[in-house]
Structures are given as structure tokens and as C-alpha cells.
User: Fold this.
Amino acid sequence: MTLPFDARAAARALASSRRIAVIGAPGAGKSTAARALAEYLPLPLHHLDRLYWRPGWQPTPPDEWQAVQRALVQAPRWIIDGNYGDTLGIRLARAEAVLFLDLPAPVCIRRVLWRSLRLHGQVRQDLGEGCPEHFDPEFLRFVARFRRHVRPQLLALHAAAPAGQAWIAPSSSRETHLLMAEVRRISRSAASAT
Assistant:
């Protein structure tokens, strides 16, 4: 199943939202899209990977992790980038829009491989301090299985979404670029009108 995609309507929905959850497979471009949205829209950005991972790739304990997210979503305005399925419900309950980057597995795998090679040993801006990029075969397997195992759960959440919650699902890099260009256009038009 592919969700319908209309870049103009999707951009209008994002531009009018105060709380946006950005989800999708690793390598789909969540952090890049979230940074672009934060640049074009006056919303604070939170990268979940930066908040979850402690130095040495140590995870935040589950109870503390849930508390962190409950506190984040209480803010009136935000963009939150990341999946973390066990706490996704916390974010979706407050999100006005969900940007689901629904890209094919080969694209995501290629991007994750390229990222791990290009940035090996470096800490990305969307990761916590002390968490350098590295090649992880188990993570790559997760990326390869995402569409088969996680995507159906995300589509079920979309089907159960409350009325008025916009789900935007570009399914290619081209659609994602068109969407971001349209959000940028709307943002510039709004800025020049004031």
C-alpha cells in the first residue's frame, strides 16, 4: 500500500502544523528532512537519537526514555525526528502532522552504508556525544527488514490516526525534495507577506 502524495497539499499541512513527528526507516532522510523543516518553519527541532544514545552507544533506560518524550511532547510546538517504536504512541498522540518518509529499502540501505563509510568515527549532529558513526551489520539487517516488519505497523497507526492528523508519506527522494521545496516556498511567501 502506498499512501497518496500531493506535494502542495502536504506542504500546506506541514506549514500549518505546530507539532510534527518525522518517522521512517533509517537512511530514509528523517534527520535531513527534519532539519529542513526546522529551517523553513518556526519550530524547535529534537533529534531522538541525540537524546536516547549516551556516550559509548549506551541507551537511556526505558522509564527515563518515556519520561523524556512525555516532557518533549508537552511543548506547544516541535519537530521530533525518530522512530523508537516503543514510544511512538507518545509522539503520535500529540502530533498534528506525521511526515513518514516511506522510501524503498535499497535506497535506505545504500544511504546507511554510504553514511557509515563517509562519516566513520565521526559524531553526527543528530547523535549524542560519544557515539561515533560505525558499521553495524545488525543495524543494516534492521534497515533491510524495515519495510517488511515495521512499515505495516506504521501503516496501521496511520489507519487509526485521529481525524485531523495529517500523514504525509513521500515514497521517493524526488517526492521528498519536491515537498521540501514547496515548504520552503510557502515559508518564504509567508515571510514576505509580513
Notes: The chain is about 50% helix and 15% strand. The mean pLDDT is 93. The domain at 7-193 is CATH 3.40.50.300 (Rossmann fold).
